[in-house]
Amino acid sequence: MRRPLRSIFAIACVLAPAACNEHRFGFFPGTESDGGTFDPSTETDTAGPTSSPTTISPTSISPTLQPTITSDTETTVTSVTTVDPTATVTTGVPSECGDIVLPPVVPITQVDSLQAKGDDFSLDCGGVGGTDLEVVWTAPVTGRFQFDTIGSNFDSLLAVLDGVCSGQELACDDDSGGNLTSKVEVDLVVGQTVTLVIDSFGESTAEVVYNITQVQVADDCPDTVFDPFVPLTIDGQTAGASNFRSGSCNGFESPEIEAQWTAPFDGLFVFEVIEADFDPVLYLLDVSCQGLELACNDDSNGPFPQLSRLMTAGQPVIVVVDGAGGQSGKFLLSIHEG
Q1: What is the rounded distance in angstroms from the CA atom of residue 193 to the CA atom of residue 21?
Q2: Which of 127, 221, 270, 294 is 20 to 30 A distant from 160 in Cα terms?
Q3: Element (H, E) at 273
């Protein structure tokens, strides 16, 4: 028997408070449907499955305001806050915060000067009374990026702001780069615009060397393991995840999340996204995250993907929810008999 559809947007916060957190990605524990039985001939329902805890990126933390850390001395202080998965795209040269706009590429090494610059920003990690330089840049892909002033010859501070100049401070650092230089790492999604603020410890006219590089992140796949039940319906979110893989039918630029599921008996099983606030892509991998692709679909069920697969009892697959064209967001996944 197939479970009636429900609205992911109406009840996600009731079933799983974590689903209300726009900065968390993964399959949300506690949102599964009541499980079926292992034996399709058995009529007695059993308790529903509980998925394992969702893997959370080290920099995907609660969006609540973190305690501000300040320093009046030159000790190393690092402050990290949440990366907002909603992209803000620069449409032109910002007039309110300098005029340096870098192309959306990596890696970048740039040299500028603090000569004739003012003191426009006071950062969480310091910079009061210092001279600062602002640079606008847009992430070309979803991933983790390092921003640093390594190569500079002055005591620098560095912050990354979301959007153009006036957004939330995503990260701030004083001396983590060595030799009084600064270094931070931030998770961004494709198309997300940030402002790099380079400040000095006191007034300065120094030459500034700054770098932007992409950081390789460990592929923790799968994100969770579903119990071998059908029907199964679970909420999830891809926004904020990494982009490690893609299907043959799409998903080349979008972040994705994965779950392992094992067939409880021989039969035909249907995997489908039944609700989403983005254009989802769905594919199956054989046994593990390094396995061969078994099937891939984009929009066979209206705007949503649907796959059918004949499986034997005990056969594991990796279910991957991805996106088209760099898109990501919330979804409702269903696995049931065909």
Answers
A1: 21
A2: 221
A3: strand 267-276
Are both 301 and 191 inside the same structural domain?
Answer: no
**Residue 233: enclosing H or E segment and its boundaries?**
strand 232-237
Final residue before a domain boundary, out of 163, 197, 215? 215
Distance CA 254, CA 22 (A): 17
Structure tokens at 284: 């199956």
The answer to whether residues 153 and 86 belong to one domain is yes
3-state helix, strand, coil in the chain (%, to 5): 5, 35, 60
* Rounded Cα–Cα distance for residues 255 and 145 (Å): 15
In-domain check, residue 44: yes
Q: Is residue 154 part of a domain?
A: yes
Residues 238 and 259: beta-carbon distance below 8 Å: no
pLDDT bracket for residue 219 (50, 70, 90): confident
pTM of the predicted model over 0.85: no
Owner of token pair 């300065």? 204
CATH, residue 316: 2.60.120.380
The total number of structural domains in the chain stands at: 2
Domain closes at, from 215, 237, 266: 215
**Planar angle of CA 178, 98, 69, nearest 5 degrees:** 45
Q: Is residue 191 within 8 Å of residue 138, measured between CB atoms?
A: yes
Whole-Å CA distances, 80 to 7, 125, 154, 337: 34, 10, 23, 45
Residue 94 has pLDDT above 90, yes or no: no
Query: Would you mind telling me the total number of residues written for the chain in this entry?
Result: 338
Domain membership flag for residue 18: yes
Together in a domain, 90 and 208: yes
What residue numbers bound the domain in which 304 lies?
A: 8-57+219-337
What CA–CA distance (Å, rounded) separates 281 from 279? 7
Rounded CA Rg of the chain: 23
H helix and E strand count, the chain: 1, 20
Average pLDDT score over the chain: 77
CA–CA gap between residue 224 and residue 32 (Å, rounded): 13
Strands 156-162 and 169-173, sheet pairing: antiparallel
Residues 202 and 269 reside in one and the same domain: no
